[in-house]
Amino acid sequence: MKDRGDSRSEDRQVLLAGASPRAQAPGTIEAKDVCLDLLTPEGMLRILDGITLSVRPGEYVGVVGPSGSGKTMFLNTIAGLEQRSSGLLTVFGEEPRPGTRTVGYAMARDGLLPWRTAVENIALSLEACGVPKAERRERALDALDRVGLRTFADSYRSQLSQGMRQRVALARTLVANPQLLLLDEPFAALDAHTRILMQERLCQLLEPYEGTMFLVTHDIPEAILLCDRVLVFSRRPATIKKEFEIDLPRPRSALHLRSTEQFQWWQARIWEELAEEVQDQ
Amino acid sequence: MAGQGAVEGVAPTVMGVDGTPPVAGRGQGSGAAQPAGRSKSGGVLVVWATRIVFLVLVVGSWQVLTANGTINPAFSGEPSQIWSSFIQLFGTSTLASDLQTTMYETLAGFAISVVLGIVVAYWMVRIPFLDRTFSPLATAANAVPRIALMPVFIIWFGLGPDSKIFNVVSFVFFLVLINSLGAFQQAQADRDLLLLARVLGFSEQQRMRKFILPAAVPVLFGTMELALIYSFTGAIIGEMLGGYNGLGVTIETDANALNTNGYFAVVLLVVIITLLLVQILRFIRRRLLRWSTLETRGLQAM
């Protein structure tokens, strides 16, 4: 486990400066027998088939699984974007619903508004919750600083590279100081090299982060690098096939870790589980 | 980008017409080796040269054919005469009031149509029930031949500007409505942005204001350009079918008197004014929509 130490609120300030530190403890995800059926042209389709999961406060959990296995659907159910068909699910002890300030959601595509500059796009996160305009800009600039794009504050989406867009999107997710990060293949749209750099950067950003993270990815090394626990989803209808507690020490560094034997051992074990699910596709 | 592509395609032909020798000899190889900046500025010159040559050819042959009697100038007008009629037009006492009337009808009709069209489209998108109910009716209303109804509009609103404004609105409102509806619906089809709006917890109204409206603005500007041209046409047709004064009345009078040159002179004036107004609109568009220009040009614009 990460060493979270005594300097909790101080650390939060480092990551998300300008945000008021909250007194309450970070929350968890509690799922029991969560099922999800979706109406498709071929009729009712079972997507999730009894997912039971408990995410501890401050834990980073990653999900890998075959394409179309319902990983994203599970994430969206946690985000309150999809209504589960049965089972119990609470986020911070409450029924999940979208648009809560405590949850930050990032998707594979950057979703930046082309008519807004980078800093305005980040400020968008703060507009729904009534943060005053001057403070919005201040905090947005700060978040931009954290992803290393301060000089591009007034650039439009079309003037940024794909990697920069993704960083702006990440800053937009972080700026509202969420207690739970839901990341849906955040780097899937990037080329291989940029992705590795972004993983490294996110890893550094997450090091002082106090909240909980739930990550959906195709990328096994990404899951190992970022997460304390990796879940392998079966093919649809999805169940949790296997769980791995990744006991690699922190702080982690992508560049260093990748070459270690431990890392490769984890990679092989997770792939072994995943391969069985992917093969019959 | 498109403009540049066209330039490159046109270049060899134009050089041939101008008789500029080196280009044909150089071949493609050295042409490609030219720095991009130079070939671009050269491209603009070529475009303008082509345009002017084309216009000179069209107007010149018109002039020659009417002067030597191949075409009867009474029916087709004669460019040199049209030009002098055009100059004379500015000496006539009625031009100012004609222009004023037509511009008033055009701009009033345009403003009403654009505001009404966009507002109605906005609410039809926000309330799907309205969309489902009235969309087919709007399409049907747009299919009504409005010119045929102009006499009725005159009965309703008299021979003054009101009937023309109504005529313009009957044309342009539906144009704006249908285009704006399309623009809003297209913006609403962007699932990523809608997802983002939900995740960030925006209300329905905020979603419309922050996501749907800005996305639709470039299309709305394109629609406004069309609307402006149709407003002018609508006002002039209205005047031609019956009115006290206005450019359309002058056109009608000239046509009836077989004053073909005077007729074309007024048409020329209308074209020039329309172009000016369109340019103003485009200027505003460029000012307001820098992001849109950047999007379409891509990184090259930097």
Tell me the structural class of chain A.
Answer: alpha/beta
Q: What percentage of amino acids of chain B are in beta strands?
A: under 5%
> How does the major sheet of chain B shape up?
none
Oligomer: heterodimer
| CATH homologous superfamily heading of the largest domain in chain B | MetI-like
- What spatial order of strands do you see in the largest sheet of chain A? 5-6-7-3-8-9
CATH fold name of the largest domain in chain B: MetI-like fold
String of helices and strands of chain A: HEEEHEEHHHEHEHEEHH
Structural account:
The complex is a heterodimer of chains A (281) and B (302). Chain A is of the alpha/beta class and 281 residues long. Chain A has a domain of 179 residues: Rossmann fold, CATH 3.40.50.300. In chain A, 35% of the residues lie in helices and 22% in strands. Chain A has 9 helices and 9 strands. Chain A is globular. Chain B has 302 residues and is an all-alpha fold. Chain B has 2 domains: 70 residues, no CATH class; 214 residues, MetI-like (MetI-like fold), CATH 1.10.3720. Helix content of chain B is 85%, strand content 0%. In chain B, α8 crosses α9 and α13 packs across α14. The two termini of chain B are 13 Å apart. The chains are: A alpha/beta (281), B mainly alpha (302). Chains A and B meet through α3 of A and α10, α11 and α14 of B.
